[in-house]
C-alpha cells in the first residue's frame, strides 16, 4: 500500500449505535482509513462488499438475515482479496473456529481498544495474522481435536518455502518442538531454530502457533 492510499473499511454490525460509533472512532485513527457505508446485516454486508470492494470488513457474527460466518464465506468466494476481521461479543471456541475456518484473518472482541482494532486492520492488510496468542492456541487445539494427525499429512506445499522448510512446517503443525524436529531430521537444534525463524519471516507470522494455523487454513 502506498502512502497516499487509504484502507477502505466496511463495518457490518446490526446495532446502529455501535456501527456508527466504531466508524467515528476508527476515522479518527490517523488518516489512513476510508470508512465506507455500514451494513446493518449479513445480506447487506454481501451487497455492499460487491458494490464498494472494501479492503477490510469488520464483521459481527450475530446479525439478522445472514449471520457473519455465512456472510464471510459468501464474500470470500466472490472477493477473495477482501480481508475479514471478526468483531464480536462472543468468544466461544466453536465460533472462533468457524470464523477462522470461513476465512477470517483476525478475531477481536468489541471491548478491544480502538488502537488495537486499527492496528489489527493494518496487520491483515500487510499479510499478517490478527489473532492473539490465546485465540490462536484455541483454534489450533480445535483443529487437532477434529482432524487429528491427518491435518499435517494434507498440507499443500507452500510457495516460497524450500522442500526442507516445508518438511519442517509439517512437523511444526504436528506440534513437535525444535529438539524433536532436529532428532527426526538429523539436524542440530540451532539449525532447526534458524529454519523456523526463516519460515516465520517468509509466512509473515509472529509465532509457531500462528504459523500452524496459517498452514492449515490459508
From TrEMBL:
Gene Ontology molecular-function annotations: DNA binding
Q: Name one GO biological process term.
A: phosphorelay signal transduction system
Which InterPro entries does this chain map to? CheY-like_superfamily, NreC/VraR/RcsB-like_REC, Sig_transdc_resp-reg_C-effctor, Sig_transdc_resp-reg_receiver, Tscrpt_reg_LuxR_C, WalR-like
Q: Which residues form the Response regulatory domain?
A: 8-125
Residue list for modification 4-aspartylphosphate: 60
Reading the lineage from the top rank, the first entry is Bacteria
The record, for Pfam families, names: GerE, Response_reg
Keywords, comma-separated and alphabetical? DNA-binding, Phosphoprotein
Q: Start and end of every HTH luxR-type domain?
A: 152-218
The family database entries (SMART domains) matched by this protein are listed as: HTH_LUXR (SM00421), REC (SM00448)
Name of the protein in question: Response regulator
What is the protein's species of origin? Bradyrhizobium pachyrhizi
Amino acid at each position: 500500500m502506498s502512502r497516499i492510499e487509504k484502507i477502505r473499511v466496511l463495518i457490518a454490525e446490526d446495532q446502529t449505535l455501535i456501527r456508527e460509533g466504531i466508524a467515528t472512532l476508527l476515522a479518527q485513527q490517523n488518516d489512513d482509513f476510508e470508512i465506507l457505508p455500514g451494513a446493518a446485516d449479513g445480506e447487506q454486508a454481501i451487497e455492499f462488499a460487491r458494490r464498494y470492494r472494501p479492503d477490510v470488513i469488520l464483521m459481527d457474527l450475530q446479525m439478522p438475515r445472514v449471520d457473519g460466518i455465512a456472510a464471510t464465506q459468501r464474500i470470500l468466494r466472490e472477493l477473495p482479496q477482501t480481508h475479514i476481521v471478526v468483531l464480536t461479543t462472543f468468544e466461544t471456541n466453536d465460533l472462533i473456529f468457524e470464523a477462522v475456518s470461513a476465512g477470517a484473518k483476525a478475531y477481536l472482541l468489541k471491548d478491544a481498544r480502538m488502537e488495537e482494532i486499527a492496528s489489527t486492520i493494518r496487520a491483515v492488510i500487510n499479510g499478517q495474522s490478527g489473532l492473539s496468542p490465546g485465540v490462536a492456541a484455541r483454534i489450533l487445539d480445535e483443529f487437532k481435536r477434529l482432524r487429528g494427525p491427518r491435518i499435517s499429512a494434507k498440507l499443500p506445499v507452500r510457495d516460497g518455502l524450500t522442500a526442507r522448510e516445508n518438511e519442517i512446517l509439517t512437523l511444526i503443525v504436528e506440534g513437535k518442538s525444535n529438539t524433536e524436529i532436529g532428532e527426526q531430521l538429523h539436524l542440530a537444534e540451532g539449525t532447526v531454530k534458524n529454519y523456523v525463524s526463516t519460515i516465520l519471516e517468509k509466512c509473515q507470522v509472529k509465532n509457531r502457533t500462528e504459523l500452524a494455523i496459517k498452514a492449515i487454513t490459508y
